[in-house]
Design a protein that fits this description.
single chain; endopeptidase fold (from Nostoc punctiforme)
Length: about 170
């Protein structure tokens, strides 16, 4: 009986070893970065910017905060762009001035949405997520969260959209 088990075990062991070697070799070929070539996150920097911002939802507001644990509105934009190697100006007004204008109807995920909340100057910014929604760090406390462009407060104060990266 032992001889029969040993004779069956050798081919099984050899096949198992071969399978382990093949799987190990294939694992070495997998990409280091998450996602595959052509995925929206790797192909479009806007998606990467949005993903970085959405990953901070729930982080507290802090005036002058640039992350990773607390943010003001323009600090969130700075942080999200920095995650993909893009340096951007620090304040909402400077970001508005530097951005390539994008019409509201042509906004894409990762684009910026700017607001004039309490004056004629741009004083607030968020990162567009699609479907009229955006991620932002509210000016009056609270946490990084999603909001809608059609909310009364933002609809009235919308100053325009912009992009700080080259669209592929």
């Amino acid at each position: 009986m032992t001889r029969w088990i040993c004779s069956i075990s050798r081919p099984v062991a050899a096949r198992s070893l071969l399978l382990v070697l093949v799987l190990t070799a294939l694992a070495a070929c997998t990409p280091f970065r998450a996602g595959l070539p052509g995925d929206p996150v790797t192909a479009d920097p806007g998606y990467a910017v949005l993903q970085a911002a959405q990953g901070r939802i729930g982080a507290p507001y802090k005036y002058g905060g640039t992350g990773p644990d607390a943010f003001d509105c323009s600090g969130l934009v700075t942080y999200a762009h920095r995650q993909i190697g893009i340096a951007v100006p620090r304040t909402a007004a400077q970001q508005f001035a530097a951005a390539t204008p994008v019409k509201r109807g042509e906004l894409r995920p990762g684009d910026l949405v700017f607001f004039r909340l309490e004056s004629r100057n741009v004083s607030h910014v968020g990162i567009y997520a699609g479907d009229g929604r955006f991620v932002h760090a509210p000016q009056r406390g609270g946490n990084v969260r999603m909001a809608g462009l059609d909310e009364e407060h933002f609809r009235r104060s919308f100053a325009g959209g912009g992009r700080l990266y080259a669209h592929p």
